[in-house]
Amino acid sequence: MANAAVGARISLRNILYLTDFSEPSEAAMPFAISIAREYGAKIYAYHVLLPAVLTYLTTPEMMETALASQEEAARENMRRVESQLVGLPHESGIERAAEIWSSLEETIKNQAIDLIVLGTHGRTGTQKLLMGSVAEEVFRRSRVPVLTIGPAQHGSAHKAAKFRRVLYATDFTPESLAAAPYALSIAQENNASLMLLHVMKELEGQPTGRAAQDSKSNALYQLHEIVPASAELWCRPEAIVQYGNSAEQILKTAKEREADLIVLGVRDPRGLMGAATHLERTTAHKVVVHATCPVLTVRG
After folding, report:
1. Domain that residue 234 falls in
2. Residues 177, 174, 11: CA angle, nearest 5 degrees
3. Looking at the DSSP assignment, which residues form a beta bridge with residue 95?
4. Contact, 71 vs 49, CB < 8 A?
5. Over the stretch 46-92, which tens digit does the pLDDT of each residue have?
6. What is the C-alpha to C-alpha distance for residues 135 and 133, in angstroms, rounded to an integer?
7. In the listed set 140, 155, 170, which residue is the last one of a domain according to the structure?
8. In CATH, what number is assigned to the domain containing residue 240?
């Protein structure tokens, strides 16, 4: 999907709602539901049962009882999730696995997933599925876009998970431009304003005066070129150029412009979880953790 032409309506047929039944996961559900309704998509609610260390330090009999109890609790929680999906095409699944990604990758393929929606606490934890580093692994490794609702997002203040002001950040690399079709399509679906942001680094010896103005003008021109002329009739694009740290400026701009959604491109990690994003190593992570609105990451 990341290769969709700019200006083309993206297709979201199957949405994977990844949950560990925590408050952050609950906060993410309205977004999965809202997007499913907008695009006529099916929701697949999915939970991974991870090994509990203490479970395996007991006798075989106690271990069997503990595992059965864990599975029953998960099924009960999933029933509550399904009760909120009544009226929408949906399925659910609970899998036991040693780690998240292998199970998740198979589910994405088998269910033909077009979008993953998840919530994160923004920190790590051994018994939580969607905590910081795991959520980061998902949006870095996933070949389909990932919508992350971070700890700074307050669902009750989000106006029923509707996106009215979309902020798309780019540095003009192919990886970041892969996210442009999603920013445009979501803005069109929601009749939203579209803001396009490019952050330029402040370096010693950088151009000043006329040279600096030319550099900024060139960036503004490239931003406007991303939006097809036909799209300007409905998305009211606004091009913005800022200077400084990428993550800080993205977050600052999103807050000042009251963005409902931030859209970013991320680079293929090529098997290395330490790989950089298209902006900086920690840009996407910082934005996801600190943004006061959902963040859509698209792997280029």
Report:
1. 157-299
2. 50
3. 48
4. yes
5. 999 877 644 555 667 777 777 788 889 999 999 999 999 999 999 99
6. 6
7. 155
8. 3.40.50.620
